[in-house]
């Protein structure tokens, strides 16, 4: 969708850039002013800042331009998104803490499909990793808004 020359590239890459920038700003504000007691705030900074940075990289470097840089950005989202979801277990309350672990584990386990793309196809494998993280991120925002 975001490949150079694709009719949807401007729309797709533009929304990815905006999503990455807004996520970066939101996470920064959250971590700086968090009323939640986050253990090891430095670890939290790394886990929660990397996915938005990866999203920005993916938006600026489409897959059909410089694949290595695009892949680094994508795996920043994939790996740190799943790990960040699981890390939320340490400072959230049930039942959300269990949902966080479940979605993070599904996201990380789905990375295995990248090693065998013939089973589900590359696009499906990518979505199996990203969708649980996106569901978690939206749910986490709701959790934060409801916790006062």
Report a brief summary of the structure.
With 148 residues, the protein is mostly helical. Helices cover 74% and strands 0% of the residues.
Mean pLDDT: 92
How much of the residues is beta strand, in percent? Answer: under 5%
Unreliable stretches (pLDDT < 50, length at least 5) are: none
Query: Structural class, from secondary structure content?
Result: mainly alpha
Query: Which series of helices and strands comes N to C?
Result: HHHHHH
Number of domains: 1
Distance between the first and last residues' Cα: 38 Å
Q: Identify the overall geometry.
A: globular
Rg: 16 Å
Q: How would a textbook summarize the main sheet?
A: none
* Count of individual beta strands: 0
DSSP summary: helix tally:
6
Helix content: over 70%
């Amino acid at each position: 969708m975001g490949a150079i020359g694709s009719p949807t590239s401007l729309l797709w890459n533009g929304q990815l850039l905006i999503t990455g920038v807004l996520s970066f700003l939101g996470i920064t504000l959250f971590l700086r002013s968090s009323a939640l007691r986050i253990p090891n705030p430095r670890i939290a900074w790394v886990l929660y800042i990397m996915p938005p940075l990866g999203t920005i990289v993916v938006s600026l470097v489409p897959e059909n331009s410089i694949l290595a840089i695009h892949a680094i950005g994508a795996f920043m989202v994939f790996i740190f998104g799943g790990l960040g979801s699981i890390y939320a277990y340490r400072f959230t309350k049930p039942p959300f803490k269990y949902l966080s672990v479940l979605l993070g584990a599904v996201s990380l386990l789905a990375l295995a499909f990248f090693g065998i793309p013939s089973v589900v196809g590359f696009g499906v494998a990518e979505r199996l990793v990203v969708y649980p993280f996106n569901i978690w991120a939206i749910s986490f925002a709701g959790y934060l808004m409801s916790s006062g």
